Amino acid sequence: MRFSTRALVLSGVIAAAAAGPASANATGGFAVAAAAAPAPVAAPAAVPGAVEIPAGMRTTNGVQAKRYKGKTADGRTAYFARVPLKAPAPVQQAVIAANKIVGLPYKYGGGHARVQDTGYDCSGTVSYALIGADLLDSPLPSYDFEKSWDEAVPGEGEWISVYGNKGHAFAVIAGLRLDTSAARDRSGLKGPQWRPDNRRDHKRFTVVHPEGL
Question: Mind giving me the DSSP string for 136-153?
Answer without folding.
Answer: -SS---TT-HHHH-TTEE
